[in-house]
Write a structure and sequence with these properties.
With 106 residues, this protein is an alpha/beta fold. The protein has three helices and four strands. It is globular.
Length: 106
Amino acid sequence: MYIHLNYKDCWISYYPCKKNDIIFDAVLKIKKSQCKNSLKEDGIFFSSMTQTQEKIKHLDKLKDLIEEGKIKSVIDRSYPMDKIAEAHEYVDKGHKKGNIIISIIQ
């Protein structure tokens, strides 16, 4: 089972982490060197800045894991569109523990 962890915390050893197959940094907040202790020996680190061909290969692997049911999305909170400012305030506080959902259609 794959879950979301704060890999920066793992790297600086606030708590022990299991080794992971893939770490994807979608918001460019960490470097590969910061999460090397959280990756398996043949683990993949990539970000939205990864070169296109390499990114395609990694995204294919990620797609396979999702289709196999081996990745679990972590949803922290959900907000309706009219509360989007509140959602941004929550995220800006830096305490979110997963993804934030904005419901466009109710």
